[in-house]
UniProtKB/TrEMBL annotation:
The lineage of its organism: Bacteria, Bacillati, Chloroflexota, Ktedonobacteria, Ktedonobacterales. This is Uncharacterized protein. The keyword Signal applies. Residues 1-27 form the signal peptide. Residues 363-405 form the Golvesin/Xly CBD-like domain. Keywords: Signal.
């Protein structure tokens, strides 16, 4: 078997060499007129000769739980492009021919699934490795209940791309450079999702074919059409852990700034609303603007001790219906605390609370969402500014409470 496979690879290599060195053929790109089948096989043959990649991926979340401990859905090695053929093959060769459409959580899941689902419920999502942000926004701007919803994709410069789907907020923008385990956003349930979680996929950049970061351990030939290699860094725990802000209650010991108080200010036209789920029983809301800012909400907090703080915003299930809300956090630079830093985060409020999802009505409850971790110096006034310039018409933004939570270490 090994000799037969070697013969096939040798023939493919010879064909590739002759093609690339024949008159009139300058590169593989010039084969665009050839059949898609031949192009795909040529790409596969080329990838088969690439060096085995070194492990480079870290956990895309804070804490010390392993990927296996957080995984609820595995990648399907049998046609991992959501092909519903009634067969699911896990990385260790275990195969399911039934219950692959509704899945068995933690064992199989999703016929044709092209990545890993992890049980992150409105938690911070981190970059698995350094690289350049390729995508940051809605996967389908015309349908927020399709595919990955709010997502981020990163080119790691080594032929691989990682993607992070179903997010509720995004902290980065296309073109930005990120480091290992830098915050990208917060997990959520946007797109084609049944509930809050993180979907992470790894692709070959050349053709966006999904590969399994756990490689292939089965006792038969890997059915995936591209090579699968183990590319997780050994014991890739994060160096520190930030407070988890998810849920409906303010974090213990947080600096809480509510709307309507002396340390809250607003411009433009805002309306007052009172409901039992609002912090202290009330909030302010405004209509969105499709272009320029016509209303802002600003929360001010006096910082008692210099250091890093996790900043969170409370999203209620009333009046918060925008899908692209800009929040700007004004903080200090750690190297020069006298300089002011500004960072804008985009948050989707429409998939929090009660809303219509692709599989029916979803209820997440009210949520505190992280806007990221920032450095503030003692005595300065930390600020968070919400703008109604979302690019939408006919929907609303809600201003309730913001919290500043000290990060230990």
């Amino acid at each position: 078997m090994k000799f037969t496979r070697f013969q096939r690879l040798l023939v493919l290599s010879l064909v590739l060499f002759l093609l690339l060195n024949s008159p009139g053929v300058e590169s593989a790109a010039s084969l665009s007129g050839w059949s898609p089948f031949f192009q795909d096989r040529l790409a596969h043959a080329t990838e088969a000769h690439t060096q085995r990649p070194f492990p480079f991926l870290h956990r895309p979340y804070y804490g010390y739980q392993t990927i296996m401990q957080r995984t609820i859905s595995f990648m399907d090695h049998d046609k991992p492009w959501y092909a519903n053929d009634g067969k699911f093959v896990r990385f260790d060769g275990f195969t399911w021919n039934d219950s692959v459409f509704d899945c068995t959580s933690g064992l199989s899941c999703y016929d044709g699934h092209n990545g890993y689902d992890m049980n992150l419920r409105f938690e911070s999502v981190l970059s698995a490795a350094p690289g350049r942000v390729l995508r940051a926004g809605w996967y389908n701007p015309l349908d927020h209940n399709s595919s990955f919803g709010l997502w981020v994709a990163i080119d790691h410069g080594n032929g691989f791309v990682t993607s992070y789907g179903h997010l509720s907020s995004i902290l980065v923008a296309s073109g930005e450079q990120v480091g290992t385990q830098w915050p990208l956003g917060t997990s959520g349930t946007t797109g084609d999702s049944t509930g809050p979680h993180l979907h992470m996929s790894v692709y070959y950049l050349s053709n966006w074919r999904a590969t399994d970061p756990f490689g292939w351990r089965g006792r038969f030939h890997d059915p995936n059409i591209v090579p699968d290699n183990y590319i997780w860094v050994n014991a890739p725990a994060t160096r520190y852990v930030v407070p988890y802000l998810g849920g409906s209650h303010a974090y213990p010991g947080a600096i809480l700034v509510d709307d309507g108080g002396a340390v809250w200010s607003a411009t433009g036209s805002w309306h007052r609303s009172a409901f039992r789920t609002d912090v202290h029983g009330g909030l302010h809301w405004a209509y969105t603007s499709p272009d320029t800012t016509t209303a802002t909400s600003t929360w001010h907090a006096t910082i008692p001790v210099s250091g890093y703080y996790e900043v969170g915003v409370y999203v209620d299930d009333t009046h918060a219906t925008s899908s692209w809300v800009p929040y700007t956090v004004y903080s200090a630079y750690p190297g020069n605390p006298r300089l002011l830093a500004a960072h804008t985060i985009r948050l989707d409020e429409s998939h929090i609370g009660y809303f219509g999802g692709p599989f029916g009505t979803v209820s997440t409850g009210t949520q505190w969402l992280s806007l990221g971790t920032y450095y503030f110096r003692r005595g300065m006034t930390g600020r968070v500014v919400l703008s109604n310039a979302t690019g939408e018409s006919g929907v609303q933004v809600a201003a309730d409470a913001v919290e500043f939570v000290p990060v230990a270490g």
